[in-house]
Specification:
Shape: globular
Structural class: mainly beta
Strand order of the largest sheet: 1-6-16-17-5-2
Helix content: 10-25%
Strand content: 25-35%
Number of strands: 17
Distance between the termini: 25 Å
Largest sheet: 6 strands, mixed
Number of helices: 3
Length: 216
C-alpha cells in the first residue's frame, strides 16, 4: 500500500531534533597511484545531510512521539521537515535573517520567479545550496538593496522556496535580488524499522534513528 503523497509539510518533533547529531555528507572517490600520489574524483556535485535523531531522545514521552511520527510517515515512504540546529538560516546562527543575506539572482525586467539559495564559501570555491523548505513568514527580500514587502511586492511558496514578484514589482534589469530566511531540511527516515529497547533506553542507551536529506 502506498501513501497518497511523498512529502508531508510537517516538522519533526522539535525537542528530539534539538539534540540530534549529524551534518553534511559528500561522496569522493580516492584512487592511490603507484607514484605515491592519489587521484580524487567528486561523485556528488552537492552535499547531502544525514542525522541521527536518537541522540535527542530524553524521555519515554519523546519515544512515544517519535513512534507516532514514524508511523504517520510510513517509515521511509514519506518525507518531512527537519530543523538543523546548526544550519537553519541565511546568516550565522547567532544572528537574525536580513534581506541582504544571500544573493538569489539578478533582475532581467521580465523574470518574476527566483529560487531561494544559500552560498557557502567565497570565490571559485563557493557552493550554492538550493533552499526548498523556508519557514513561512521568515523570508525577507530586497531588490537593488531596498527591502520589499511580502504580500505586496512578492509572495513565497514555503513548499518549494520560490519567490514570485507581483506584476508591478518585477526586479528591473541588472538589479541584485537578495534574501534572508530561516529554513528546514527536507528529510525522510532512513530505516523502515525502529529498534527500541525500552530497558536499554532507561539505562541511557539511545536507539539509532537515522534521517537522510531528500534532495530537491
Amino acid at each position: 500500500m502506498t501513501a497518497p503523497v511523498a512529502f508531508h509539510e510537517v516538522l519533526f518533533p522539535a525537542p528530539v531534533a534539538f539534540g540530534a547529531s549529524g551534518g553534511p555528507e559528500r561522496r569522493t572517490d580516492i584512487v592511490p597511484l603507484a607514484s605515491g600520489f592519489e587521484s580524487r574524483n567528486q561523485r556528488w556535485a552537492d552535499s547531502r545531510r544525514r542525522y541521527d535523531a536518537g541522540t535527542g531522545l530524553r524521555s519515554l514521552d519523546d519515544l512515544a512521539e517519535l513512534v507516532a511520527f514514524f508511523e504517520a510517515r510510513r517509515g521511509r515512504l514519506i518525507g518531512f521537515r527537519f530543523r538543523d540546529g546548526l544550519d537553519d538560516r541565511s546568516c550565522l546562527p547567532s544572528a537574525l535573517p536580513g534581506p541582504l543575506d544571500q544573493a538569489i539572482g539578478t533582475g532581467t525586467g521580465a523574470q518574476p520567479v527566483f529560487a531561494l539559495a544559500k552560498t557557502y564559501g567565497t570565490g571559485e570555491a563557493a557552493w550554492v545550496r538550493s533552499i526548498a523548505k523556508p519557514v513561512a513568514g521568515s523570508v525577507r527580500v530586497a531588490v537593488g538593496g531596498i527591502e520589499r514587502t511580502e504580500g505586496l511586492h512578492f509572495s513565497v511558496d514555503p513548499a518549494t522556496g520560490r519567490v514570485t514578484f507581483a506584476p508591478g514589482a518585477i526586479p528591473p534589469e541588472g538589479a541584485a535580488v537578495t534574501a534572508g530566511f530561516r529554513f528546514h531540511v527536507p528529510v525522510r527516515f532512513d530505516t523502515d524499522a525502529l529498534d527500541i529497547d525500552v530497558a536499554g533506553f532507561l539505562a541511557g542507551q539511545a536507539p539509532s534513528v537515522p534521517l537522510v536529506e531528500i534532495r530537491p
